[in-house]
Amino acid sequence: MQPFIKTIIPLSLLLALFTGCSKNTTSNTAGSGSAPSGEALLTGTELASARSNYTNYCAGCHGQNLETFVDRKWLHGNSPEALFKSIKHGFPETGMLAYDTTFTDTEITQLVRYIRQGVASGQKKQASKGKVFQAQDLSFTLDTVVTGLDVPWAMAFLPNGEMLITERSGILYRLTKDRQLQKIEGAPEVLAQGQGGLLDIELHPDFNKNQVLFLSYSAFKKEDGQTLSTTAIMRARLDGNTLKEQKQIFEAQPYARTRHHYGCRMEFGRDGYLYFTMGDRGGTKVNPQNLTVHAGKTHRIKEDGSIPADNPFVGQQGAMKSIYTYGNRNAQGLALNPTSGEMWLHEHGPKGGDEVNIVKKGANYGWADVTYGIDYNGTKISDIQKKPGVTDPIHIWVPSIAPSGMAFLTGDRYKGWKGSLFVGSMSFKFLSRLTVAGNTITGEERLLQDIGRVRDVRMSPDGYLYIAVEKPGIIYRLMPVE
């Protein structure tokens, strides 16, 4: 078993309301502004109770100041009646649990008013231009690379200095050297609902020669009058602003009615194979420990989608041959450690218990037999945190920070940061710098507090660190100050 470091931060946990986790930034406190027309403001006692419940059960996903509810596309309506029904009875297919046993009807009513009154007073903000940020080892500013996006899920850097950006809505962009966005035709059709859409992008190791890239996304199909979805990967060749020779090289089985926990980060290993993550699709007790399904695993395939002969479960009857690890919940960070050559990943825990893990061939990471968290509505998932045969995380966050995006810092542009691991936080809206010694995480520094939901973190070939923030979608470059 490997040691881990546990990070404790003020209580603020995950709730997956309506359309998944996505937020805009706001500086106002709910309940202190104006009420919607015809709705009385919460009293002091009511406000304190509603704020406490929101902080403990909702803020991790939706922000301390209800950021995701501002300018929201309400999938199930935003009337008091619709919100009450959503909170009380839930929508399991989107990952929203029922809270009928967690809250009384009075508490739900107060929570509805708290949300609606917070939305009424919500305002947006973004990083101050020219501000110098002071970290432990250096100072830096933020260069605003591009604005006007919504949910920039991933970035990839082209050899000519341009950038490719995936928008979760299904659009693939080229960002030119003069910072103009150009749409690329030929991206896969996606189901942009809940946490689904156009997800990660990865360039082929020989992109300079073949212009081949890979896109992960939520594929869908109609069956018996229902729309089912799954995680899929497309291989294509980039020709100007068009994708050609598109081929689906991975299609997870089985399809599901749910709209969350798709994964799916991708990274090429030094062995030349494509590693990628797939979430459990909400099948907490069914998928992660079941080798006959793809969900809740890390996978390894060849660039054409075929299976490496030495994958750990190739010879096991009934097992999906692409599986490399299992017992994973929903990993949205995957990076090659430049020192060891091993794959590192982080994955979302439930209400508490986000993890950093080192990817080991055939390893079981325990979900959902073991966990450091509980379910979103406060119910217990497992009584144990360790188990024989389960590989322990090397780092956990309690409560959850909702990690997304992951990059090891290389090069010498950032004095004192070389070798650090950078992870975005969507729930607490900061950039985490984890110090690393061998296979141990020795500390954490939190940068850019309240910058927004950090969806992706990347190192550019010229040695700069980039982050993508969502709703509003902005990409920043960290510029060290001498």
TrEMBL record:
Superkingdom classification of source: Bacteria
Signal peptide start-end: 1-22
Statement: the UniProt record of this protein carries the keyword Iron: yes
UniProt entry keywords in alphabetical sequence: Heme, Iron, Metal-binding, Signal
GO MF: electron transfer activity; heme binding; metal ion binding
SUPFAM superfamilies: Cytochrome c, Soluble quinoprotein glucose dehydrogenase
Key word Iron present: yes
PANTHER family in the cross-refs: ALDOSE SUGAR DEHYDROGENASE YLII, HEDGEHOG-INTERACTING PROTEIN
Protein name: Membrane protein
Biological source species: Rufibacter radiotolerans
Lineage, opening ranks: Bacteria, Pseudomonadati, Bacteroidota, Cytophagia, Cytophagales
